[in-house]
Design goal:
Number of helices: 11
Helix content: 25-40%
Structural class: alpha/beta
Strand content: 5-15%
Strand order of the largest sheet: 2-1-3-8-7-4-5-6
Order of helices and strands: EHHEHHEHEHEEHEHEHHH
Low-confidence stretches: none
Shape: globular
């Protein structure tokens, strides 16, 4: 049987916002190297070279003026109104290959979606860890994201599948994807994230459920700081997973942001590697074709371990927990999974539990009746 496709190029390193920027492309190379060291790329998945996205692939996702602005920015032309497009800001600085590298990572997510449509690798899963840039808006860059590859992958899947679920486990709200499909009942957007009250982008509250024909098809579960993996998983399984099952998607785009981990420097949740992986496993067990893409994650030692385990889970590869020797030396640890539970403030944990339970009950009251579910 053919192996799942893993789209990768060393040219992903060109999406480089500078040495002081949190989004460092070397985390992608670290993941590739760890997957190689674990034998996943030799026997489990097949590496494929992605092609850049085309302008027509982004119709309806990004405006023509915005794409023109990015291309001008790459040429080194500074023009009036650049900030109107979210460019040349601390979060989204202009860099030498901003247009071409953005089109490449977006093309990789489109290629992964096409692999599902073509039945490549058995048609059950395809990967692009450079993707998951979920904050890019119709005409504005935001949150380290220039183009919304997530939406582009969904659009490609929709050429065949009547219902697509987008499931986002990044610690930041998937606001750009939600915005693009907010009135579309064919796309269920799901986001588990730290509350917008304490974290960028300040959105993703329970009552953001869609508009017009799309009302009821936007699902948000926000969490308070100090939320542990136990609390996070319980809320996901109680309030969100039943909605996904009731929606009955024909295909799924899974955004695998790794920044909900307890030691990520840009957020405040307290998940372990293995607790985060449980949600990946839950999505896998839905038995639907999956386009698995990357996302946030700013402690790179965590990112490479979490994405290696996620690729192995989705590709149905059994991995030993021991890190290969060269990575054990490099990371200063011995295992893919976390050897110790996160350190959590007890009072903060109880407040987080209460907040999660409240958000889950509110979400169920709003959306369960729409899907024929009982609370």
């Amino acid at each position: 049987m053919s192996r799942p496709l893993f789209f990768y190029s060393d040219a992903f390193q060109h999406y480089d916002m500078g040495p002081q920027h949190p989004m460092q492309p070397r985390r992608l190379r670290m993941t590739y190297d760890l997957l190689s060291a674990c034998g996943v790329l030799a026997t489990g998945v097949e590496v494929a070279e992605p092609a850049p996205a085309r302008r027509q692939d982004l119709a309806g996702i990004h405006s023509h003026d915005y794409l023109e602005a990015i291309e001008h920015a790459e040429s080194g032309t500074h023009f009036p109104g650049m900030h109107r497009f979210g460019l040349d800001t601390p979060d989204n600085p202009v860099f030498p290959e901003i247009y071409s590298s953005s089109m490449l990572y977006t093309g990789a997510s489109i290629d992964a979606a096409q692999a599902i449509l073509d039945g490549a690798g058995g048609g059950q899963v395809a990967f692009n860890i450079s993707g998951g840039l979920h904050h890019a808006h119709f005409a504005r860059a935001a949150g380290f994201c220039v183009l919304n590859d997530c939406a582009a992958a969904i659009k490609r899947l929709r050429t065949r599948f009547a219902r697509v679920a987008y499931i986002d486990i990044d610690v930041h709200h998937g606001d750009g994807v939600q915005e693009i499909f907010y009135r579309d009942p064919a796309v269920l957007t799901v986001s588990l994230h730290e509350s917008g009250r304490t974290l960028f982008p300040g959105t993703g509250f329970v009552r953001e459920i869609g508009e017009g024909e799309g009302e009821g098809f936007s699902v948000n579960l926000p969490f308070a700081p100090e939320t542990t993996g136990e609390i996070w998983l319980a809320a996901w399984r109680d309030a969100v997973l039943p909605i996904v099952r009731a929606f009955d998607p024909e295909a799924i785009v899974l955004q695998m942001g790794a920044d909900a981990h307890a030691t990520d420097p840009l957020a405040h949740l307290k998940l372990s590697v293995q607790e985060w992986l449980e949600a990946v496993r839950d999505v896998h067990l839905l038995g639907r074709p999956i386009v698995a893409i990357g996302g946030g994650g700013y402690n790179f030692d965590n990112v490479c371990r979490m994405w290696t385990l996620a690729v192995a889970e989705l590709a149905e590869i059994d991995l030993p927990d021991a890190l290969p020797a060269e990575f054990a030396r490099r990371l200063g640890m011995d295992t893919l999974r976390d050897p110790f539970p996160p350190v959590v403030d007890p009072l903060g944990r109880e407040r987080a539990r209460e907040a999660a339970e409240h958000a889950g009950e509110e979400l169920k009251a709003l959306l369960f009746p729409r899907f024929g579910l009982r609370g």
